[in-house]
């Protein structure tokens, strides 16, 4: 094993970024190049002691400016999850399972407690809870006191490393597959023109399509690199102390230069990209006519609900008819086929039922909020539960009536 691999084997493999690097392997490379060994809050004293013994360096005190990293695990409040998949994309070891618009959950045995999934969650339904010692071997947290504990933690780190590497390989395969699909579509589009063009022109079109696909892939890659560089810079700014040390300041300068380089590379690619085709005027007219029709229909409906005068209703009805005629004219002028419209009779909305359901939703939300607060009194919970029961009873009674 190389020196970097031996250093990486001692790191906790949380890939949390608290050390200022995008993962444990880059931090191992930094240590091999002379960086301090006390920048890993998840590893703590155990990792510092192991690195000091490996590198024949003095044991340093943990750099507390990088925050705390106790033995913890992510927990998703599944009733509040909206299935956005942002936490799945953020997890470096694929420890969260779920699908779009479906509930997500955390695999306890695989979670490393990096807390990278907390920030992207748009509904804030992820909590970092103390690690249940009876269920899993902690990857971090205190000094190991026996050879069995050392072996168990080493196995846990190796398992986390394998999952992290497998995830990166999977993402690379998916990127390669998407690139191949784009190139195949471009090639098929170029081949479809062979019948109407000579072979030389067809070959030129295929080359143009391949160049366009490659430029599209390069532009997408540049956008991803810029986003990652920006995220790493912001993460380091939050993790470092205020004011940062000289070493942290130098690292921030490097990250800022990387961000500026990525920004310039993206700007250059965007300047070289062909301009987007202007919108077709006929399609714009069709869209404008649809918006106008929807506006006139809403005005007439609002006036009818407000019991407006007959003269005002006649004026609005005439405006609605004119908007319908304008839409038909725009559809005829457009190249798009006219849609097939089907009238659906909807049941009228019961305002009392809507009010009861709104009260039920508020009662349920207040009860959930009180249940999550550790200092909630029993009387408050009882009142909230009673309110929820009463709201449910009124909705059911109204539905049965």
Explain the layout of strands and helices.
Layout: H1 3-10, H2 24-32, H3 44-55, E1 72-76, H4 86-90, E2 96-97, E3 105-106, E4 126-130, H5 147-191, H6 199-239, H7 246-272, H8 281-305, H9 310-333, H10 351-372, H11 378-400
Antiparallel strand pairs: 1-4, 2-3
Give an account of the 3D structure.
- This protein is mainly alpha-helical.
- Among the domains are: 3-66, Electron transport complex subunit B, putative Fe-S cluster (3-methyladenine DNA Glycosylase II, Chain A, domain 3), CATH 1.10.15; 70-177, Alpha-Beta Plaits (2-Layer Sandwich), CATH 3.30.70; 281-333; 351-400.
- 60% of the residues lie in helices and 3% in strands.
- It contains 11 helices and 4 strands; from the N terminus they run αααβαβββααααααα.
- The chain has a two-stranded antiparallel sheet with strand order 1-4. A two-stranded antiparallel sheet has the order 2-3.
- Strand 2 (96-97) and strand 3 form a beta hairpin.
- It is flat.
- Residues 1-57 form the 4Fe-4S domain.
- Residues 148-199 are annotated as: Disordered.
- InterPro entries: 4Fe-4S_dom, 4Fe4S_Fe-S-bd, 4Fe4S_Fe_S_CS, Elect_transpt_cplx_RnfB/RsxB, RnfB_subfamily.
- It holds the Pfam family FeS.
- Keywords: 4Fe-4S, Cell inner membrane, Cell membrane, Coiled coil, Electron transport, Iron, Iron-sulfur, Membrane, Metal-binding, Repeat, Translocase, Transport.
């Amino acid at each position: 094993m190389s020196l970097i691999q031996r250093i990486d084997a001692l790191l906790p493999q949380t890939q949390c970024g608290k050390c200022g690097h995008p993962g444990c392997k880059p931090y191992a490379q930094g240590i091999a190049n002379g960086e301090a060994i006390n920048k890993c809050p998840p590893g703590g004293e155990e990792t510092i002691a192991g690195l000091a013994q490996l590198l024949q360096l003095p044991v340093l005190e943990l750099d507390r400016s990088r925050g705390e990293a106790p033995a913890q695990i992510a927990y998703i409040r599944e009733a509040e999850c909206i299935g956005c998949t942002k936490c799945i994309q953020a997890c470096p070891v694929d420890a969260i399972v779920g699908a779009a618009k479906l509930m997500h959950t955390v695999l306890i045995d695989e979670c490393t407690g990096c807390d990278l999934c907390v920030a992207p969650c748009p509904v804030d339904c992820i909590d970092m809870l103390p690690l249940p010692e009876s269920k899993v071997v902690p990857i971090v947290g205190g000094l190991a006191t026996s050879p069995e504990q050392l072996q168990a933690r080493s196995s846990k780190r190796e398992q986390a490393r394998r999952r992290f590497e497998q995830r990166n390989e999977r993402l690379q395969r998916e990127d390669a597959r998407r690139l191949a699909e784009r190139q195949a579509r471009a090639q098929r589009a170029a081949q479809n023109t062979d019948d109407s063009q000579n072979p030389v022109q067809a070959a030129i079109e295929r080359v143009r399509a391949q160049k366009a696909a490659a430029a599209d892939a390069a532009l997408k890659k540049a956008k991803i690199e810029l986003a990652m560089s920006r995220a790493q810079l912001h993460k380091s700014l939050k993790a470092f102390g205020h004011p940062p040390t000289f070493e942290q300041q130098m690292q921030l300068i490097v990250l800022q230069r990387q961000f500026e380089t990525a920004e310039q590379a993206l700007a250059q690619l965007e300047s070289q990209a062909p301009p987007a085709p202007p919108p077709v005027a006929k399609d714009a007219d069709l869209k404008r006519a649809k918006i106008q029709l929807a506006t006139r229909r809403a005005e007439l409906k609002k006036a009818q609900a407000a019991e407006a005068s007959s003269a005002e209703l006649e004026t609005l009805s005439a405006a609605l008819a004119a908007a319908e005629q304008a839409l038909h004219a725009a559809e005829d002028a457009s190249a798009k086929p006219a849609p097939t419209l089907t009238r659906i009779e909807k049941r009228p909305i019961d305002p009392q039922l809507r009010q009861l359901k709104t009260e039920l939703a508020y009662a349920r939300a207040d009860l959930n909020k009180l249940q999550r607060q550790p200092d909630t009194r029993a009387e408050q919970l009882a009142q909230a539960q009673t309110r929820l029961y009463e709201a449910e009873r009124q909705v059911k009674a109204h539905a049965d009536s």
